[in-house]
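Annex B, item 7. Sequence and structure tokens for protein A, then protein B.
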Amino acid sequence: MLDVAPIVAAASLRSSGLSSSVASPVTSWTEQSGLDWSNVAPHTVLSAADLYPRICVRDPYFALKDVTVMGKGEVVARVPVQQDPDAEAGVIGIAEAGRHMAILGSCASALMAPKDGQHFYLACGARGEWLRREPMKRGNELLWGLAQASFTGKRTATARTLLSTPDGMPVFRLEVDYNVLSAAAFTRLFGEARVEMRREPRRDDGVQRTPEEWARMRQNPYSKPLELRDWSSDGESISATLGPVTTEMCKGHFALHPVMPVAIVASGMTRVATTLLRKLEGAPWARCLAKDVRLSADSLAYAGQTVNFGAVRRSHDGANHTFTCQASVGERVVAELDVTYERVE
């Protein structure tokens, strides 16, 4: 499939208003000599081994396939759909789409980083829009993801991303803002504050485990919805809790610093919003599509903490429901989401 990546990428970028330099055949990083990250040739394939030392996530949170350079600060990749969109009537839920696009944006940003080495790309804001207004079935094939990034300051970056169906039809546009920290700076700011946190033993630590325990360790926590509990609703508001957060829920995200990914926090907020929509519509089968999406994330939820999710319907106009959602740990707000959902089924 990589041989058609330039064609699909170019068409999708043109239709979205993004630009791209299209060059000839795909080559692997190892086939080129003397490369540096500021001057990677178009159509260079970046493997996980190339990317992990540069970004702050790894598998299973990182699930992109065939990450390929398209130009300066531009990358294209294949994107899996790992979770059922549930109440959302798109090929992928917006929170999962945000996860993959934010990671792809960090890969594009890594090409533009002014300094060498690993950096932590902390998503602090996002603005998105679902581009198709008709219901679609869950995607069973790999989607296309595109990202174009630039540094907007010494420690800030922004990525413009586009998600398309396997045949190149754009379905979701997302712009992500990052605070960018070196590994040393991140450890100074966040690592030492959590030294008391218990971490799960390594697989090779000599501890005897049952087959069920081994199977649980191999599971991908991002392939299923969050197990929210303590649901409570009151008129046009609803709330639920998650936790305590385990290190298992943070697998592959910020190694050695178990932090709940922003996209997974967002999935909790979209979950309470769509649950409230179904309740208010009196239709537990209802499906909807997101319109305007605005996310801000000013804090982090660490392993060991309990996260509270809430949603309030702010307005209602026909099939459109606008919600304000919040995720918090105690009195501390972790993230906020404003989203308009349109009921389509």
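Protein B:
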Amino acid sequence: MSVRIVSPRTLRRVMRWWPPFRAAGIRVERIADDWSAARVRMRLGRLNRNYFGTQFGGSLYSMCDPFWALLVLHRLGPGYVVWDRAAEIEYVSPGRGDVFVEFELSEERVAEIRAATADGAKALPWFDCEVRAADGTVVALVRKQLYVRRKRDAATAVA
């Protein structure tokens, strides 16, 4: 699998028009220039409102889905394979308006992943984030597990 590396600004612009995000009212507000953080907002609208008039759970998860993998992939660089492996979501309170999520990937966490994969082994790190309402109320807790390993070079793969 080949991943085309783009700038954070370009990715943010592309995701503005990405159909799953556009239909759900999800907007990427910021991706740090060094890929260390991102902020995502979702407005409550006609297309993401559930039967009870609150944020649809699938949309709450969607707004979190790609970001840990994207941040880790870009921080590690092209010599790594990064995939989603597992996810969990816990709904804490109803989202009755706009909701937000902040992703922060520390240099220490990146160093841990590099160390765990230095010998070619896979790493299966978990990442947590909170979906919050504008007043700071926690709406959902989301956990993602990634599969990370260094790419095997062509010579090793053939042998």
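Comment on protein B: The domain at 8-158 is CATH 3.10.129.10 (Thiol Ester Dehydrase; Chain A).
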